[in-house]
Write a structure and sequence with these properties.
The chain is built from two helices and six strands, in the order H-E-E-H-E-E-E-E. It is of the alpha+beta class.
């Protein structure tokens, strides 16, 4: 059973990422690439792999401050092997919050294929931001 990201993330919903762990500076996401997520070599496209790493790191950062949002400041990605498998294969991405300050989070994430082989690794820096009130909603002051 997957968890909720806590906020709507339309692009993540579109890709079909599921949140499996969200606690104490750690996150785990699962992703079953579909045909439209593959490149001409029939493996997961680098862009979708980077998106999975980015969301995994952001989720690890948010797991210690769920009421806050984060935005990516920088990200470095290394691809070790193609993210591939048999039809219906699943990628597992695990994120860790390495260090945080009041306003910044330093993170890493790794993606593993169905055989447990490391496919990609990333490090990222994120800035914590207060959540904006979604359009069409209003807050009521009790002052």
């Amino acid at each position: 059973m997957s968890l909720s990201f806590g906020v709507p993330i339309p692009f993540v919903d579109h890709l079909g990422f599921t949140l499996e762990k969200f606690e104490g500076g750690h996150s785990e996401l699962h992703f079953a690439p579909r045909a439209e997520h593959l490149n001409s070599f029939d493996v997961a496209h680098g862009g979708v792999v980077m998106t999975l790493l980015d969301v995994t790191m952001a989720t690890a950062a948010r797991s210690v401050e769920p009421g806050m949002g984060v935005v990516t400041i920088e990200m470095k990605t290394s691809f070790m092997r193609p993210a591939q498998g048999e039809a219906g294969f699943k990628l597992i991405s695990q994120g860790t919050l390495l260090q945080r300050t009041r306003a910044m989070a330093f993170t890493e994430a790794k993606i593993f294929d169905a055989q447990g082989q490391l496919c990609a690794h990333a490090t990222g820096t994120f800035k914590y931001l207060p959540r904006r009130t979604p359009p069409g909603t209003h807050t009521i002051s009790t002052d």
